[in-house]
Amino acid sequence: MKTQLFNATAQKENGVRLAGSVIRAGGLVAFPTETVYGLGANGLSGEAVAKIFQAKGRPSDNPLILHIAKKSDAKDLWTKVPPMAQALMDTFWPGPLTLIFNHSAQVPPEVTAGLPTVALRMPDHKTALALIRAAGVPIAAPSANLSGRPSPTTAQHVLQDLEGRIDIVLDGGPCRVGLESTVLSLCGAPTILRPGGVTREMLEAVIGPVELSPAVLAPLQEGAAAPSPGMKYKHYAPKAQVLIADGTPREAAEQICRAYDMATLAGSRCMILATRETQGFYRNRAYAIIGDRRDPSTLCANLFAALRQYGEDADLLYCEALPEQEMGLAYMNRLLRAAGFQHLEYP
Ligand code: AMP
Ligand code: MG
After folding, report:
1. Do residues 204 and 248 both lie within one domain?
2. Exposed site from 227, 253, 290, 346, fewest CB < 10 Å?
3. What is the pLDDT of residues 217-262, one digit of tens each?
4. What whole-number distance in Å separates Cα of residue 107 and Cα of residue 246?
């Protein structure tokens, strides 16, 4: 299969219209959203959705998110609009918040991996919304990467993983948030299954206390049921071993320098993901500044691109932990998975 690339800004009309008809006809289209690039198929067709799993090499028990272009479409896909959902949709949609509730008969089991619930989101991106409208159906879409690789935040990342495996890539430039959406279950007490661009603090300001699934910051216990099936898989992993340094910025940076120097002496190729505030500690070592600790959203926006860029040629990739609050929570959720939960342990 030849993958066609369209610049979604310059050739918007043609590219998006064609992509919409490809989705309707059962094909696969990668498209930009404000979070990461999605790999879309007709969300009402089990056969079309099955192709997503094939193209990504995604385990079939990991459900997908249905993307809609207007809030009122939720009522056809859920059994009812759950209490709390309306306030959340009014505040955060379009935006990086995915809501989970019991699904209607319209939703094929391929989307939900057989679960009684379905995940819905209205993305905050002109091209994504135009594509859903052009397709005329909800679009089922996970991130447009090969399963296990960092999620794509540019069209080039999508091509690295999926060229020749999908019909179309719409190029809308780099994604603003850079991490996948917040996933919030509304079955029972509201619970964050995956943190993202809408933070726990933002949700609590609208609906009161929100629980955090234990799997957000810790590996799932052997044999435990995954509240969100995506949590049980190794994620975002580059070839390099990612290692996380904890503590204050100074403590983290000093730990990284000691570990880096020892590993380099032992012959390992090392790389550091630095921040604007800590770059001064890393002089004479290989580092890249990926953002500003005072504004964790800058680190979130660049994390996946940095894992792709620096995680292939290095043996060891050193990263600083952030406080697990606001966008720092989403950052640590992804970083911990990229690291297989490995921290630096230094005296
Ligand atoms: P992706 O956008 O590729 O990261 O995949 C969607 C994420 O949402 C995965 O982590 C899924 O496990 C999660 N998800 C989708 N639908 C459900 C659902 N019905 N219940 C729990 N988690 C879900
Ligand atoms: Mg994904």
Report:
1. no
2. 346
3. 998 776 677 777 776 666 788 899 999 999 999 999 999 999 999 9
4. 43
Indicate the residue type of 329: L
Task: Pick the closest to residue 182 from 44, 304, 334 (CA basis).
Answer: 334
Question: Do the domain assignments include residue 224?
Answer: no
Q: Nearest residue CA, atom 11 of ligand 1?
A: 230
* Number of compact structural domains in the chain: 2
Q: 2-12 burial string, b = 16+ CB within 10 Å, else e? A: ebebbebeeeb
Ligand 1 pocket test, candidate residues 194, 232, 333, most atoms within 8 A of CB: 194
Residue 248 phi/psi, 5° resolution?
Answer: -65, 165
Q: Which domain holds residue 49?
A: 4-216
CA of 175 to the centre of ligand 1 (A): 20
Q: Note the pTM of the prediction, 2 decimals.
A: 0.96
Q: Domain containing 256 — which CATH number?
A: 3.40.50.11030
| pLDDT digit string, tens, across residues 176-199 | 999 999 999 999 999 999 999 999
Euclidean distance between CA atoms 245 and 255, whole angstroms: 7
Name which residue sits closest to atom 12 of ligand 1, judged by CA: 230
Residue 82 class from Cβ within 10 Å (0-12 exposed, 13-18 middle, 19+ buried)?
middle
- Tell me, yes or no, whether 278 lies in a domain: yes
Q: Which residues line ligand 1 (CB under 6 A)?
A: 62-63, 65, 100, 112, 115, 117-119, 142-143, 180, 183, 193-194, 228-230
Ligand 1 centroid distance, CA of 65 (Å): 6
Q: Are residues 256 and 186 in the same domain?
A: no
Are residues 201 and 259 located together in one domain of the fold?
no
